[in-house]
Write a structure and sequence with these properties.
single chain; mainly beta; Neuraminidase; Immunoglobulin-like; 4 helices; 35 strands
Length: about 525
């Protein structure tokens, strides 16, 4: 997808379009100072700017799992319509006071750089927006609303998708590249009533939640090249009425759309007690999505979302084993994020999670979606303390070696200890990896927990926890049994052919019986498509 530049400024003349009154911002910013504190890499988190009075905005981290905002720094005047540049590892957005014609950049610590008026706004007009994101070509994409609705007498573009150059390498930061009218507005309004949108690199579309009055909430997609608005799915039954859905995040690879309801039931907007916000995940395929809701948090007031979220797998054992990422719980970024088309998985299936899902039976990740990706260990698996071992199916299309590590809480302490770890190297062609632990004396523990982690490459000292994301592989947690082995697992030499010893006098007769056919396991269901 490529945008066509609508013109370049020379003095006060827009080549190929009308004259404008803005100064040639491109010339002023030909050499742009680098940000003070860019992110070291994609933070794999959601962020927001929030404002209580509409005049001053605060930038901070937003925990989608609990809808809690953690302030980092004030950005001075009100900022909105922001997005994250993956190439530059910074945020771009628009200042809203006194109008939205001015461009601003801020880094991981909230240090700001202002770039002044947009280059290409017609004389006497202003741009009003509260919707924005950055696409994969370093274009800030904003949606304009009626400026007169905010301040009578103002004139400017309405319901148009404006593409702005924010790539500092080409000397044209602040140039308007294109202005595309949307194909429709929300019924009864002169612009599309959405609080935010985000770019999906998988299909090149923008996704947003449109609110029609207080009764309808529709997932829509917008084509940035044509402005075509497409109704994707009516989610009124799954999503609550809210004062606004002010932040939207699209997760790379999985395509999961996260929407943040600012003020559920609009209690805050009406001055009523009990106001709260809540985040919802809309999983692909969008035409028939699974919608999950997360823990409610404080009402969000005026806010806008920006993010670098990539598909990540987490565990689901009880949190004493460090499962939640804020509690040092591990996460594995899908191999496909860094290496499109390649897979490194335990079993065959994998799905993305927002965070760990600790549950008493380690089945939170099994049950949160229709597809159960925890297919590396069969339910009811028993590991023997006399000869503890386990065969684990592996999917590896990377053409490179990997490392499988497993921890079994043999003593039932509620933690994974160093002595409870087994590791094995996995070659590029292996489809099964065998883990073997040291034999232990039988104790009183009959059920416990297993954690498996599959890493790309050679890992000398894998850990069962650690909040730093691993790039590639998968994590699986399982509740297992200790004792006699399960016939479906390679755990212990099993006398199952049956040697019946019949002693008659001094003679010993060995009677053999036929070995039963192994039980066939059903083929796993296909994973959800992104």
């Amino acid at each position: 997808m490529r945008f066509i530049r609508i013109g370049r400024l020379v003095g006060l003349t827009l080549v190929g379009s009308a004259a404008v009154g803005a100064l040639p911002a491109a010339a002023a910013f030909a050499e742009i100072a680098p940000p003070i504190a860019p992110f070291a890499e994609c933070p794999n988190l959601g962020y927001q700017v929030q404002s209580e009075d509409g005049k001053t905005s605060t930038y901070g981290y937003f925990d989608l799992n609990t809808s809690k905002f953690v302030p980092i720094k004030s950005l001075g005047s009100s900022v909105n319509a922001g997005g994250y540049s993956r190439d530059q590892r910074v945020f771009w957005g628009m200042r809203t006071n006194p109008d939205n014609n001015t461009l601003v950049r801020w880094d991981s610590e909230g240090n700001t750089t202002d770039f002044g008026p947009l280059n290409g706004v017609p004389v006497g007009q202003v741009v009003r927006t509260n919707v924005g994101t950055v696409d994969d070509q370093d274009h800030l994409l904003i949606l304009t609303r009626d400026p007169a609705a905010d301040k009578p007498g103002l004139v400017g573009p309405i319901n148009e998708l404006i593409s702005i150059d924010v790539d500092p390498s080409d000397g044209s930061v602040g140039d308007i590249l294109s202005m595309v009218p949307l194909s429709r507005a929300t019924p009864g309004m002169n612009f599309l009533r959405i609080g935010d949108w985000d770019f999906n690199p998988t299909d090149g579309k923008l996704y947003a939640l449109e609110e029609v009055g207080t009764t309808k909430r529709e997932l829509v997609s917008i084509d940035p090249a044509t402005g075509q608005v497409t109704d994707v799915k009516d989610l009124s039954a799954q999503l609550p009425e809210s004062q606004n859905y002010g932040a939207v995040y699209v997760e790379d690879v999985s395509g999961t759309v996260y929407v943040s309801a600012n003020d559920v039931d609009s209690k805050l907007a009406h001055g009523e007690p009990g106001a709260y916000s809540e985040t919802f995940a809309i999983y692909a395929p969008y035409a028939n999505p699974t919608v999950l809701k997360y823990t409610p948090g404080p009402a969000l007031l005026i806010n806008d979302g920006a993010d670098c979220l990539v598909a990540t797998d987490f565990g689901d054992a009880p949190d004493s084993y460090h499962t939640l990422n804020p509690h040092d719980g591990p996460g594995h970024i899908f191999t496909e994020v860094d290496h499109p088309g390649q897979e490194l998985r335990i079993g065959k299936l994998i799905d993305a999670d927002l965070d760990g899902i600790p549950t008493p039976n380690a089945d939170g990740d099994d049950k949160n979606l229709p597809v159960n990706d925890e297919d590396g260990v069969a339910p009811g698996t028993t590991i023997s303390t006399a000869d503890p071992g386990l065969d684990v199916p592996i999917t590896n299309t990377t053409g490179a070696a990997a490392t499988l590590a497993g921890w079994v809480d043999f003593n039932g302490s509620g933690t994974f200890d160093t002595g409870e770890r087994a590791t094995v190297a996995v070659s590029a062609t292996d489809t099964t990896a065998h883990l073997h632990w040291k034999a232990l004396e039988a104790g009183g523990v009959t059920s416990t927990f297993l954690r498996l982690r599959l890493y790309p490459g050679t890992v000398a000292d894998p850990k069962p926890d650690g909040a730093a994301f691993i790039h590639g592989g998968e994590i699986e947690d399982h509740k297992i049994l200790l004792g006699l082995p399960n016939t479906g697992q390679r755990l212990l030499p099993i006398i199952e052919a049956g040697l019946g010893l019949m002693v008659v006098g001094a003679a010993v007769t060995v009677a053999t019986r036929r070995r039963p056919s192994p039980r066939r396991r059903p083929s796993p269901r296909p994973t959800a498509t992104a």
